[in-house]
Amino acid sequence: MSDQLDKTAQGEEGSHRQLPDDKALAEAGDVMIKDKEGNSLPFKSLWTGKPENERQLIVFVRHFFCGSCKQYLQALNESLPSSSLSEANITLAIIGCGQPVGIPLYAKETNSSCALYTDPSLRTHELLGMKSNMRTSKVKPDYIKQSLLENIVNSAQVALTSGHAFSGGPPGQNGGEWLFQGGQLKWCHRMRNSTDHTEVKELKAVLGM
């Protein structure tokens, strides 16, 4: 394991990096998430029964109209393209918190070719300790290229023109990054505020890329 993974396992990175207990993770694994068609599947199907040398990176994003999260996924697409992830035996899945009807537009807006799901029940978020607030980071993350005002305006425009303005998910629900291998959680990062996804540079270090 990398130093970052060791610190997480030992709880040295703060509560937002501490792994959930086995009971909470098992319960979360049984939660039914949904794909773009509205079909249900257990959350654990994304990280169990996979090849031993494969790692599964799961990114929980905020509501489907969140401009900050869209910029984060764009940064991931640029720095960790699907070809690079494939070479490293890493799969990527995105999970939102809105209704399934919002997934197709979100995939188009973020130019995402990876698997997208959602948990409108917010049960996985609750069990895994992902918090709800609308605060922003004191220091603007590298992945944020727009101002807060631009983010708000763009998010509102997309919501109003989407035809599904009330299906994006709770505006305050935050997400995080979760890395699995061999059916076990190896590392995690819970967003402490609305602009607190793991910086791409750090995520690449965690992945050894």
UniProtKB/TrEMBL annotation:
InterPro entries: PXL2A/B/C, Thioredoxin-like_sf
Gene3D superfamilies: Glutaredoxin
Matches recorded under Pfam families: AhpC-TSA_2
Taxonomic superkingdom: Eukaryota
Positions of the UniProt region annotated as Disordered: 1-27
SUPFAM superfamilies tied to this protein: Thioredoxin-like
Basic and acidic residues biased stretches: 1-25
Stated name of the protein: Thioredoxin-like protein AAED1
Source organism of this protein record: Gnomoniopsis smithogilvyi
